[in-house]
Amino acid sequence: MMVHNIFMFGELPCVQQIRNKWPDFRMKKDARKRNTLKEYGVYKLRYNALRKNNIIPLEIQEIADKEIYNCPRDASITRIVQRCQVTSRPRGNVKRWRLSRIVFRHLADYNKLAGVQRAMW
């Protein structure tokens, strides 16, 4: 009788686990690194070019050194790890779709990926 009253008033018990949009904490970290790279990557590239240029004065190179030191470490392209967007698997990824080989094959089997066709011979 009590269960019937809960459904009458529209209050459903929480059956599913509430999750965020990342499958893993590592993906959340990777997303943060990608956003940092998007924001600071261009500046870091320019500062690095100024630092390594031998033609410009030494004072400008030192200023560029200080500016690069003040940039976040996650603004480097080498700190980004290629991970599957569905499972957060770090190995065996197909770069074009950012999916692991397992998820890629599953989606390709059911024609869920545009431009992908099973090999037939």
TrEMBL record:
GO terms for molecular function: structural constituent of ribosome. It holds the Pfam family Ribosomal_S14. GO terms for cellular component: mitochondrial small ribosomal subunit. GO terms for biological process: translation. Belongs to the universal ribosomal protein uS14 family. It comes from Aphis gossypii (Cotton aphid). This is 28S ribosomal protein S14, mitochondrial. Keywords: Ribonucleoprotein, Ribosomal protein.
